[in-house]
C-alpha cells in the first residue's frame, strides 16, 4: 500500500509537471503569435497611413507625400488613422484578447528637409523615364559654346580698346547708339514682348513660403547707352561667373520644371503665375518682373554670341570701323573705344530681335551666320519693323532652351521655388496647404497589450515588457516611406 501511495504521488507530480510544461509551451507560442500578429498589424497601420498620400500632389506634380496635418487636422489625425487600423485588426481577433495601448507619431521627414533631398530624388526618378540623353548633351554644349564666345568677345574688347585708325571715313548719319536708345525708351521688355501680349504685374504675397530666406541670383543685363567701355566689359563678363558644378545632377530638375510649370510661351494650366518657370529663375512676386529678369539674363547669353559673330565678319567690321573713325573725331573719344562700343550696340540690337522671336515661340540660330543676321547698323531706328523667320536648322535654339540654361545657373534655389509654386497653386483651393508639411517618411511608436492566459510567470520572453499587471505588452517602432 505504501509503495502504491508513492507511485500515485510520483505519477501526480509527473502529470502536473507535464501539464505545466504543456501550458508553458502553449503560452510561449501564444506570446510568439501575439507578437507576430501585433507586428504585422503595426506594419499594416503604417501602410494604411502611407496610402493616404496627397493624391492631387501626385497626379499634378508626381510627388508622393502625406500631409502631416492632414488638411489642417493636426498630426493627431495620422495617429488616429493608425490606431483605428490597429483596433480593427487586433481587437476583432478570435480569443486573442489584444488591445491597442498607444500609437504615437515619433518622427516625420519632409520633402524639403536636407536641401529638398527627397524632392530631388523623386523628381530624378520620375524624369529619368522621360528625359533623353541627347537633350542633356545639347544643353551642355550650348553652355560650353556660350562660355567660349563670351571669353573670346571679352578678350577682343580688351585687346582692341586701344586701337588707333589713320584712315579717313566718309560716313555720315546718326550715331546708331542714339537710335537704339530711342527705341528702348519704354524699356527692353516692352520692345521684345509680342504684339497683343500683356504681362501681368499682379503681385502675390510669398512671405513664409519655402524659398523665403534663400539667396538670390542677381546677375542680369542692365540697359546701358554704350558710352562707357569699362561698363560694357563688366556687363559682358557677368555670365562668366556661374559654376557648372553638378550640372548633370540637376538636369532632371530642369526637365521637371519645364514639363510641369507654365512658361511665357507655353501655358499648361490656369494658375496664379502665367510665367512659372520664369519665377523659378528670377524669384519675383509678379509675372512682369519675372519675365523681365529672364529677358535680361538671356541678353547675357545672346549678346556675346552675336558679338563674336561680328568680330569674325570682315565686312561688318569694316562698316563699324568707318563709323568709329568719324565718332573718334569728337574730343575725348578714342577710335578703339568707339569701335567696340558700336560693335556692342549692334550685337545688342540683334539680340533684341532674337529675343522678340524667342518670346513669339520661334527659334533662332545659335551662332549667327551672315544669312540669318537681320539688323543693319545704319538702320537701327527701323528695328521694330524687321521681319524675321523661324529658324529650323539643326543649331536652332528656342525660348525653352534658354530657360533650361537659366534654370541650371539658378539650381541652388530651383527646388525651393518649385515648392513655392506648388504651394501657391494648391492654396487656391486649400488655404491650409503647406509644402513644409508634406512628409515622405513617417515613424510610429506602437504599443499593444494581450491578456495572460496561462503560466503567468513567463516574463522574460523577447519583445514582452515587464509590467506586472496581468498583460503582455508588445512595443514596435514602425517606419514607412516613399
Automatic annotation (TrEMBL):
| The organism's place on the tree of life at top rank | Bacteria
Alphabetical keyword list: Membrane, Transmembrane, Transmembrane helix
Q: Where is this region: Disordered?
A: 150-176
Q: What is this protein called?
A: DUF5702 domain-containing protein
Report TM segments. Answer: 6-26
Organism name = Coprococcus aceti
Q: What is the lineage of its organism?
A: Bacteria, Bacillati, Bacillota, Clostridia, Lachnospirales
